[in-house]
Amino acid sequence: MDAPFPEDDQLLALLKASDRHVFNLIYKKYWKKFYRIALYHVKSSEVAKDIIQDLFTSLWVRREDLTITKGLDGYLSSALKYQILNYIRNQSLHQSHHTLILKQSSALSHSTEEQIHFQQVTDAVQDQIQKLPERSREVFELSRNEGRSLKEIAQLLQISPKTVEVHMSKALRLLRIGLREFLYVFVFISIGGF
Description:
The protein is mainly alpha-helical. Helix content is 79%, strand content 0%. The chain is built from 9 helices and no strands. It has helices spanning 8-16, 20-42, 45-61, 71-107, 112-131, 134-144, 150-157, 161-178, 180-190. The longest helix is centred in the middle third of the chain and has 37 residues, at 71-107. It is elongated.
């Protein structure tokens, strides 16, 4: 029979003191519950495991600076909710940009003005891709240009799938920021503003 888990207050105090044994206890106490929640929302075992890994990695990295007022369970629940929403938002954003670009490219007529705008957006995308940090750019290009999966990229670059996902998220975030004004122009073109 397993020994009962210490109270969260005790676990937190020991965690802040960098007690790895306590971190393992916290992981053992909560991982199944949070894995099931993540799996329910993201519908992928691999993604759910990555989210849980991120959740507990963040807990360990930030252990000394944590201010937890609503208990460990509440804190981890909130952090998990944020990570799930962030994942879903990134997936949704990527999908909507991809869909928009496909629709726009097929709907563009051959008028000179539209070709110029389309070329400007294409050039801006390529310019922003070249500005990405080297490893993030490499991961992005392998994924988007060559259609490789996260696992294939991880094997090819000899890094973990989680590291691939981190680089992909970083690349998408930087591209979204760098291309913000062009995306507005692109949407304006697509609804017939020009």
